[in-house]
Design brief:
alpha/beta, Lyase 2-enoyl-coa Hydratase, Chain  A, domain 2, 257 residues, binds acetoacetyl-coenzyme A, four-stranded mixed beta sheet, 2 domains, 2-enoyl-CoA Hydratase, Chain A, domain 1, globular
């Protein structure tokens, strides 16, 4: 598959997608988002891939939705055409997606980082939802995912003032999992992705699905959901292998990667 706006490669069992519109700081246009969804779906369906990694450039993960492409849209273009309704491809992936973020992750850029499962940030990363400065609000889940990630106080602060958060603040707020020096961003993010890709896939899918259930259910329902999935993993050969390997003091040899 040849893409115009992203670069795609596989290293070991990690499927890597790099946003690649340097002239526009990786601004997200319709074409890029269609390619991104396609690439995520292809890796999700590929048995040789256990985890994905999404990144951008040193200067920008992505500077938001493409303002030039959307500036002249009318209400009916946006509402009638259901603008950005199909920009949720990453959130629909079953396999985990690690975001390696350097530079600007603004607007839609922050939103697609938040669709990923783990954000590893370079110390140069800047996160924000500056849409208010353009006379709109976030449109691909920013008000919802940011609020779930950092709570109401900081989400309101960012969404209503449009200010950016640096990587240290984003880590303190719970938006990012780890902050690393910019020079080692890809190495560190790859280590995380490779670690996940080296686990038993059914457990990885189950862990991701169960953590995500926490955002959609009450505590009691979520705990019940988790327990049922936990029980079901005892039907896998990898549960037998994982526990046997522990007892025998050796590395597990997973059957279902
Ligand atoms: N859309 C389209 N083009 C963009 C862009 C965007 N979101 N962000 C940057 N670019 C373009 C610039 O227009 C510029 O192009 P030209 O050279 O042709 O003029 C090029 O990328 C480089 O950008 P700058 O010269 O502005 O670079 P800078 O280093 O001075 O500033 C920046 C960087 C602070 C990120 C600044 O580019 C900026 O503020 N960008 C817009 C950020 C933004 O508002 N994002 C939210 C978009 S709305 C959204 O995302 C809605 C949603 O939820 C779906």
């Amino acid at each position: 598959m040849s893409y115009q706006n992203i670069l795609v490669e596989t290293k070991g069992r990690v499927g890597i997608i790099r946003l690649n519109r340097p002239q526009a700081l990786n601004a997200l246009n319709q074409a890029l988002m269609a390619e991104l969804t396609q690439a995520v779906q292809a890796f999700d369906a590929d048995d040789a891939v256990g985890c994905m990694l999404l990144t951008g450039s040193e200067k920008a993960f992505a500077a938001g939705a493409d303002i030039k492409e959307m500036a002249d849209k009318s209400f009916i273009d946006a509402y009638g055409g259901n603008f950005a309704a199909d920009w949720h491809g990453i959130a629909q992936a079953r396999k985990p997606v690690v975001a390696a973020v350097a530079g600007f992750a603004l607007g839609g850029g922050c939103e697609i980082a938040m669709q990923c499962d783990i954000i590893i940030a370079a110390d140069t990363a800047k996160f924000g939802q500056p849409e208010i400065k353009l006379g709109v609000i976030p449109g691909i889940g920013g008000t919802q995912r940011l609020t779930r990630a950092v709570g109401k106080a900081k989400a309101m602060d960012l969404v209503l003032t449009g200010r950016n958060m640096d990587a240290a603040e984003a880590e303190r707020a719970g938006l990012v999992a780890r902050v690393v020096p910019a020079a080692s961003l890809m190495d560190e993010a790859m280590k995380v992705a490779e670690t996940i890709a080296g686990m038993s896939l059914p457990s990885v899918l189950a862990g991701k699905e169960s953590v995500n259930a926490a955002f959609e259910s009450s505590l009691a329902e979520g705990v019940r959901f988790e327990r049922r999935i936990f029980h079901s993993l005892f039907a896998t050969e990898d549960q037998k292998e994982g526990m046997k390997a522990f007892v025998e003091k050796r590395k597990p040899d997973w059957k279902n990667k």
